[in-house]
Amino acid sequence: MPVTAKPARRPHDPRFSCGPVKKHPGWSLDALSGAAISRSHRHPAAKGRIYEALQRTLELLEAPAGYRAALLGGSDTGAMEAAMWSLLGARGVDVFSWDVFGQRWLKDVRDELKIEDLRVFEAPYGAIPDLKQAGADRDIVFTWNATAAGARVPDADWISANRQGLTICDATSAAFALPIDLSKIDVLTFSWQKAMGGEAQHGMIVVSPRVIERLNAHRPPWPVPGLYQLFKNGAANMEIYEGSTLNTPSLLCVEDYLSALRWGARIGGLSALNRRTLENFAALKAWADGADWIDWLCADEAARSPVSVTFKFAEPEIAALPDDAQWALSRRIVSLLERENAALDIIPHPAARPGLRIWCGPTVEAEDVAALGPWLDWAYEEARKDF
Q1: What pLDDT score does 42 carry?
Q2: In 3-state terms, what secondary structure has residue 119?
Q3: What is the pLDDT of residues 191-217, one digit of tens each?
Q4: 76-113: per-residue pLDDT in tens?
Q5: Closest by alpha carbon to 95, among 73, 115, 77, 121?
Q6: CB within 8 A of 112, min separation 6: which ones?
Q7: Residue 33 CA to chain centroid, in angstroms?
Q8: What domains are there in the chain, each with its CATH number?
Q9: Residue among 222, 356, 236, 240 at smallest CA distance from 293
Q10: Strand 308-313 and strand 294-296: pairing?
């Protein structure tokens, strides 16, 4: 490789973590000044802030008429498990899994809920399964964007508009960042700390009218922990869609999420957020296409995630090293970049492949992504000297 000089220009903001992600442009602690702190979350003042967040969520996601949103505990994991534990069991289930989070949902369905009529469709990191195998008469559990694997669902065309089952979608790193046809989704879950840069531990669930119908007609055969119960007194718990919560939320975090939602609406709504993601990805792709030492973990461009961008090492002698050596190289690159304050937290998920993982969601600035590329080249060349 040619000798690469240390770049002169650093990204203005070096935070490219895939979760929690960077705060939205213009954010400051002043955004929390209107929080209903030290108030009961059941009081109208606090409950009204939660309800506003729910309604703004539906508006920004451009949810179809009749869809509802609720705030749950336990981040995206809590929201997904509430959906699966409360809703599944009425019919057969198809699970599509291609990274650590899909494996988590598969474990719930197969090993905890023990669904007997279960079909499993899996793919290795960097690929997606054959989505066309989904049954219209079955419940479907899948992840829209596999944050750890750099592979995403290209579209919702494979989901039947005349389905009898429910579609339960983990969209934690896709909601607001990627286009999602919500008319094909019955349950959409995500967490605040992903695409909009909110604070952790709070999960969101957006449900279609078909979910309310299922909750009113079906009760699962297994015990459901109270934190996961979307039903109450033998029917759907409608209070959670009006601002009530199953546990005590942080009202500071609610206010922080409201700030992000207002920012998203102010810059032009969902289309603007999606466009920012694509602009960031384009800036990273322009660099990656000219870097011969790195390659996409996901080879299929149609399935390649433009938001949680995941790379593997491509130089033959490096790619041939055992995983532990490649992980050591990843950590060395990340350490050099952190020392220079050029990029923070771009190590891949520990369950994934060694390489690099860079967030290109809507709160990131394209000029920062463009400035990052030369620093990646420099750090790789410096780190490679030890391998």
Answers
A1: 80
A2: strand
A3: 999 999 999 899 999 999 999 999 999
A4: 999 999 999 999 999 999 999 999 999 999 999 999 99
A5: 121
A6: none
A7: 28
A8: 29-266 (3.40.640.10), 270-384 (3.90.1150.10)
A9: 356
A10: antiparallel
For residue 22, give the nearest of 385, 359, 375, 372 by alpha carbon. Answer: 359
For 206: left if phi > 0, alpha if psi spans -120 to 50, otherwise beta; the answer is beta
The structure tokens 């369950």 sit at: 351
CB within 8 Å of 40: residues ≥ 6 apart: 46
Which of 16, 21, 25 lies closest to 375 in space, CA to CA?
16
What is the identity of the amino acid at 155? D
> Could you tell me the pTM of the whole model?
0.96
Q: Which residues contact 314 (CB under 8 A, 6 or more apart)?
A: 292, 293, 294, 295
Query: Please, what's the largest Cα pairwise distance for the chain?
Result: 69
In the chain, at which residue ranges do the beta strands (DSSP E only) sit?
68-73, 93-97, 118-122, 139-143, 145-146, 151-152, 167-170, 187-191, 202-207, 231-232, 235-236, 294-296, 308-313, 356-359
Q: What count of other Cβ atoms lies within 10 Å of the Cβ of residue 227?
A: 14
Map tokens 């939602």 to a residue.
261
Radius of gyration of the CA atoms of the chain, in A: 21
CA atoms within 13 A on the CB side of 311: 25
Residues β-bridged to residue 169: 142, 188
Positive or negative: CA dihedral 318, 324, 325, 326: positive
CA dihedral 17, 20, 22, 26 (to 10 degrees): -170
DSSP of 7-73, one letter per residue?
A: PS---SS-B--SSSPPPPTT--GGGGTT--TTS-TTSHHHHHHHHHHHHHHHHHTTPPTT-EEEEEE
**DSSP state letters, 68-92:** EEEEEESHHHHHHHHHHHHHTTSS-
Is 292:315 a contact under the CB 8 Å cutoff? yes
Which residue ranges in the chain fall short of pLDDT 70? Answer: 1-3
